[in-house]
Amino acid sequence: MASARQIAANRKNAQRSTGPISHAGKTRAAKNALQHGLARADSPFEHEIEGFARLLSKEKNPDDPTFACVEAAHAQLTLLQVRKVKAAIFDRFYQSDRTLDDSIRLNEELRKNERYEKRAFSRRKRAMQHL
Amino acid sequence: MPKPIIKSLRSHSELARFLGDAPLVGDEKQEDYDAFYDSIVSTMSQPDVINQLYLKDFVDLSWQIRRERLILADTIRLFQKEVVLDLLKTAYSKLSGPVENLATADRLLGADRDAQRWLGDPAGRKEIDADLLARGYSSSKVLALAYRRGAAEIDMVEQRIASYEIRRLMALREIERRNEKSASQLKKATASIIDGEFKQAAE
After folding, report:
1. Is the CB of B191 inside 8 Å of chain A's CB atoms?
2. CB–CB of B167 and A121 under 8 A?
3. Are residues B92 and B146 in the same domain?
4. What is the mean pLDDT of residues A30-39?
């Protein structure tokens, strides 16, 4: 059990642990847990979605793509990003000695990646059914 | 590094960017992928954007299934090697004879080296298989032990293959819905390519 003196010292020290103060520091710390960016809530392809949505609705109405076209374009771009991460996982494996431990690591990394691919694939499938 | 876009789509740069690069990893080659793509899709005439998307999915998933089957074969072989190593260690530790005998000491230390030989040298493999058979462990028994030992890892690869198969069938169904004749030709083309190459790898 901590003494009253230790508790007071802990509280005093904790006052100094306030995390990054500058904007640059906060931006850097915000990316601390970022490994592949596949779970982020905002879309990293906002500028590309529209063009691809127009491409999908080319035969019908390229000037005014439907919501399904936008949704399918977004899901396709997510899929491409997931596949890039997957390619990087495989490249790491092929550059290794391909031991049993390397195979186990590959399986584990692909298992984590798979859920993002499945999700994007289903999302695109649902949207494409309306095209 | 991004791989170049597939040959047949070079003239439609925006579409090619949308469909994505060839799913190449390790020492897989662009020209092999292009040949694979051409051999599968040569039956399709003038596909529209949506069909091109499904077609690319179909080819990429077929390519990935082929890769995963090779990984599966490698994984099983690695677990077989682990089983062989354990059996050799047990066998060598039971060898009678004085430890100061150089041949005995060498064999005791050589289980690792022999297991590696079993994995990489066909002649050495034959010799070690014969040795293990004499001790009551046939090749099929070693394989069964490897399956038991690596069940979790083997299952993970098989699940990935199953998952790709489902998505590939989905893409095929969509192509079928849009163009029945082309879909049946696609189905036949990929089945013979993938199965043929896997048989070669497993031999």
Report:
1. no
2. yes
3. yes
4. 65
Number of domains in chain B: 2
Q: Using the predicted structure, report yes or no on whether residue B10 has a pLDDT greater than 50.
A: no
B90 and B110 share one domain: yes
HSE-up of residue A88 (Cα within 13 Å, Cβ side): 11
pTM: predicted TM-score of the whole model, two decimal places:
0.73
Of A80, A87, A103, the CB nearest to B25: A87
- Supply B26's token pair: 């390790």
Give chain A's count of helices (H) and strands (E): 5, 0
B51 and B21 within one domain? yes
Backbone angles phi, psi at A15, to 5 degrees: -60, -25
Contacts of B162 in chain A (CB under 8 A): none
Task: Look up residue A104 and give its two tokens.
Answer: 């186990």
Query: For residue B194, what are the domain limits?
Result: 7-71+170-202
Q: Which of B25, B53, B75 sits opposite A91 (nearest CB)?
A: B25
Task: Tell me, yes or no, if B73 comes closer than 8 A to chain A by beta carbon.
Answer: no
For B156-188, write each residue's pLDDT tens digit.
999 999 999 999 999 988 888 877 666 666 677
Whole-complex ipTM: 0.71
Is residue B1 included in any domain, yes or no?
Answer: no
